[in-house]
């Protein structure tokens, strides 16, 4: 696993439920690891400031998601490949939960994927303008 950050100007503050945000990130990582099909498995996590928010990117080198399935991956109980997901114990709720958590935090989640090359999941979360108890 590799990480990269494009944040060089000190800390960035988010107002977030730590447990829920951890669950969203864990769901994406678990999904990535569960479906990786290459001998050399790669998982990358990136962080950068994006306008008034922060973007978290989780990328893998797994099998990718078919283009016709991409619009539906965040829907409850949707499985891009039902036969494989039932073998791995997936319920079809993981990415739907991710979307719900990120949207509860005022953010958005998107996906880009290329079959045979991997998938990128992007969370965009709003930055706090100041920490509680501080003045700007």
UniProtKB/TrEMBL annotation:
Its main location: membrane. InterPro entries: BphY/WalK/GraS-like, HATPase_C_sf, HATPase_dom, His_kinase_dom, Sig_transdc_His_kin-like_C. Transmembrane segments: none annotated. It holds the Pfam family HATPase_c. This is histidine kinase. Keywords: ATP-binding, Kinase, Nucleotide-binding, Phosphoprotein, Transferase, Two-component regulatory system. It catalyses: ATP + protein L-histidine = ADP + protein N-phospho-L-histidine. Residues 1-129 form the Histidine kinase domain. Its EC number is 2.7.13.3.
């Amino acid at each position: 696993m590799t990480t990269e950050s494009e944040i060089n100007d000190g800390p960035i503050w988010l107002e977030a439920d730590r447990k829920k945000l951890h669950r969203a990130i864990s769901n994406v990582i678990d999904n990535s690891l569960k479906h990786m099909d290459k001998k050399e498995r790669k998982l990358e996590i990136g962080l950068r400031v994006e306008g008034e928010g922060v973007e978290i990117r989780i990328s893998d080198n797994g099998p990718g998601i078919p283009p016709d399935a991409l619009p539906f991956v965040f829907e409850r109980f949707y499985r891009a490949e039902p036969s494989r997901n039932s073998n791995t114990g997936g319920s079809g709720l993981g990415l739907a939960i991710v979307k719900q958590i990120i949207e509860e935090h005022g953010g958005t989640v998107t996906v880009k994927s290329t079959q045979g090359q991997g998938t990128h999941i992007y969370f965009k979360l709003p930055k706090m303008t100041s920490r509680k108890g501080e003045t700007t």
